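Quick question: what would this complex look like in 3D?
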Amino acid sequence: MLRRAAEALLTILLASMLVFAMTAALPGDPALAMLGDRGTPEQLQALRAYLGLDQPIPVQYLRWLGRVLRGDLGHSLINGYPVSALLAHAFPITLQLSAWSLVIVVVIAFPTGVYAATHPRSRLARVLDWYHGFALAMPVFWLGVLLSWFFGVWMRWLPPSGFIAFADDPLRWAKAMILPAVSLGLGVGSIMGRFVQAALEDVLGRDFIRTARAKGLAEHGVIWIHALRNALIPILTVFGIYAGFFLGGAVITESVFAVPGMGSALWRAILSRDYLVTQSIILVSVVGFIAISLITDVLYAWVDPRIRYSRAEGRS
Amino acid sequence: MKILGPPCVVPLLVLIVTAMFAPVLAQYDPLDMDKQSTLQAPSWRHPMGTDQFGRDILSRLIYGTRVALAIGLGATLAAAAIGVPLGLWAGSLGGKTDAALMRGVDTLLAIPPVLLALALVAMLGPGSVNAGIAVAVVTMPQFARLARAGALAEREQEYTEAAVALGANWRWVVFRTIFPNVLSPITVQVPIAASRAILLEASLSFLGLGTQPPTPSWGLMVSESRSYMYTVPTYGIFPGALIAVTVLSLNNISDVVRRRRRA
């Protein structure tokens, strides 16, 4: 596990170099490219000093990394707002959206996956296969626009866009979260649905399932207790990977539904060429994504004792 | 055609023909504005209606096929053209070169595709070409990984050893002995990568970071339709549906090729 953590750390370090290159590789004078015609000569000079442009590139990188590790992510070039404060406001909103989307994924993936695995030749299983195919082909932004129009504008059941804080009104918060969460979770729900089906089909063919059936256990007990519990381990791993992907997908969903999370902050920053905000949000998202992958790996080894045994044996 | 079975390739073939013969098939110029007939619902004159500038939506969709296929397929082929030799090189050489190259590839794979594409577009600036470059960079690591895995397996085969023993040079071994044998999994990957590339380009255009107006692009058309969903709901439905059909067709082709390979 230590080796896996070291690998993750190395990946984060390499990714940080890539993110640093975003500003360092700007053509000409990076400070001028960042400020454009927005700043005064004094501001330009201050930005040059802040970025350390008179230093060699490796020194600039190390200085930048040092600042990031101390929690100094810089200031917005548009409004001077500290990036860390912006993230402190936006990150919890994206986290709430991701949590809601995970619920949607579970609601879609498990019933459809279990049904398709246990009734492989049924008509509904074939319909579900087609449904997953369509859900995977549907662009997230189009789905968001359609959901917003149908349920928000046409039916008026849910707010078409916007965000309400939980503390202000829990019911309106939940209502505002449903459409963005469905838009973000539907595609991943289908990926996971197919994965649950495949994992369960694999487990259902094993000897211990045959034994459980031979003992006279009820079929739903065999599936939900014996088979699904054993299929859960690989499912959880893939689940973790796709939970991390919500950080990327949130950019599109948040921009469609005007959710003020990290995704829409990143989108606005790119459109307004606010390089420091863009760089910081991408760095935080990448670190978050790699951290989620690492946590999933740790959980995987913790849930499945065989992995720890094999490693222990390997060591001895 | 016989190998893939007709149903799944038909939509893709139709799109390719549409892109090639767009000037013949489109009834109107996609950039022609008609202030007298803005935001019209579908009619005989305009089968899919008109947009906010009175431009014919069907004609814009037809021309948009060119952008989608050029960036989707072009970026995928560019990614394969860079990724496959890179993977073959790393896999056949092994050692420190392999470790260093694959660490870089893994770093790119560790970043969610949308985020990586956004980071690149933020650096390069919005536009079709830059979006294409971003999509190609995002797609490239998948091909490099696949080719490297194939090369590692093929390197140990007796016929590769025989070629080396016969005195064949390294380039000949890699491209004449190893490459033809790793081609099959790469062929399966091409349609799936192209479908993701089309989705990614459409997403970037939707966010205003890919194809820029007035050039017709499916993602951009969905984005522009948002302000008029109250008045002309059909405006945004057609381009989105076309993206979905294209992606579905490419995914189906990939599934069929994979199944044939297993059989």
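Answer marked as accepted. The two ends of chain B are 18 Å apart (CA to CA).
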